[in-house]
Amino acid sequence: SAAGDLTLTVSNAGSDPRLFGFFFHGASQVDMPIICGGRLCVAGEVRQSWVVLTTNGEASYTYDNSDARHSVAHFVAQTRNFQFWFRSGVPVGVGVGCPCDTTDAVSIAILP
After folding, report:
1. Per-residue pLDDT of the chain (112 residues; tens, 9 = 90+)
2. CB pairs under 8 A, 24+ apart, for 63-68?
3. pLDDT of residue 100
4. Which residues is 28 bridged to in the sheet?
5. Which of 15, 74, 85, 88 has the greatest CB tally within 10 Å of its CB?
6. Alpha carbon of 44 to those of 26, 71, 80, 86: distances in Å?
7. Global pTM value
8. What does the pLDDT read at residue 89?
9. Which sign, positive or negative, has the C-alpha torsion 21, 27, 30, 35?
């Protein structure tokens, strides 16, 4: 994808109609369980997007380089691994934390 117009959309981000989540990307791939739920598939220089609200299990985020902190222009000529983390409901008890889940990751080559 071009560094100036990368839009990611997921359609399997939970069964609740409106949940918060965020996209993130890293240089390498891993396969690790996350303590609150889901699996971490992305590692190495991880960068997070702004928080987004899912609507009926769908979330979307555009990396358009309008914000240098969240731009993918820094990664031109690299392959980045993108994943989405989202809340998967309400906390179930004191000390349990926030239940969450993740989507599968996808590798995308960032082109000039």
Report:
1. 555 778 999 887 666 667 788 999 999 999 998 887 788 999 998 999 999 988 887 889 998 888 888 889 889 999 999 999 887 765 555 555 567 888 899 999 998 8
2. 63/3, 63/5, 63/6, 63/7, 63/8, 64/4, 64/5, 64/6, 65/3, 65/4
3. 80
4. 43
5. 85
6. 5, 16, 10, 20
7. 0.83
8. 64
9. negative
What the block records as the tokens of 73 is 């222009």
Distance CA 95, CA 13 (A): 24
Task: Give the helix/strand (H/E) hosting 80.
Answer: strand 79-87
Output the DSSP codes for the chain: -BTT-EEEEES-S-SSSS-EEEEEEESEEEEEE-TTSSEEEEESS-EE---EE-BTTBEEEEE-SSSGGG-SGGGTTSEEEEEEEEE-S---STTT---EEEPPPEEEE-B-
Residue 89 corresponds to which amino acid?
Answer: G
